[in-house]
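In response to reviewer comment 3 from the previous cycle, which asked for concrete evidence that the modeling workflow produces usable outputs, we include below a single protein chain processed end to end. The sequence was submitted unchanged, and the resulting structure tokens are shown without manual editing.
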Amino acid sequence: MPKLSYPKITKGDAITALLKIYRKEPDFMTELEKIRQPYLVILSKFAKDAFAFFNDGTMSPAEYYQAVIDYNKGESQKDPFSAEQFGYLSQLQPYFDGLSGLAYKWKLRAPWGDMALFWLDLIEVLGAQWVFKEQDIPLENLDLLYPWSPPLPPLEIKIPAWAIILFGREPVQAEITKKLRKYEDEIKDKGLREYPSALDKHARWWFEHYIHHKTYDEIAEDEVYTPGGSVISYAKNVGTAVRKFSRLIGIDPKVLK
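The workflow returned the following structure tokens.
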């Protein structure tokens, strides 16, 4: 079974795909660099401090996410980030104001616009200072990585040594596969659909339409290479995909005109 789409994760993937395209746009990057250049020292300090904050293991991303929600709702008096440790962030207010203006100008008109640019800046700063190695995350630790409740409790399968001794590997694997299929069906019953297969392409179409002002027909002409391909038909697909992508990332097309 192909992987499934958890809405909040898929939205994040779509936003990331779009911002990668933005960061290849020379004019956008020139404006971004002008905004962040005066604050690179502070951004670098915060990136290192925040990395250390999470790396010390005292709070998982999921726990931090919930702590921020509780603090903002007034259900907790404790700010997850220490005011003493991170008080210098107040110096970044002009930088955040600049990011908000940049996001609006470049049609990233959503609540996540300026913060998404901020986090990408932090990742870039960290990447320039340290070389990160890709690490395989154990399956049992994924619940600690994501801050949202999973649709179902973990699937637990116990295999006694006698099962291997008496039946061998193949019958045991067949039993595991059967239980796994049942678990997958239960997850799909929670309303999760298959993960969209063309996020990167649709992000590019969105960017070409709203930033480079290409019509759906022009985008379709760039995409249709096969002899006899119907540009008119494909243009309809482009329009549908662009509107769907805009809904996915939470940007109302009406505010972009």
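Confidence is low (pLDDT under 50) at residues 130-135. We consider this sufficient to address the reviewer's concern, and the full set will be provided in the supplementary archive.
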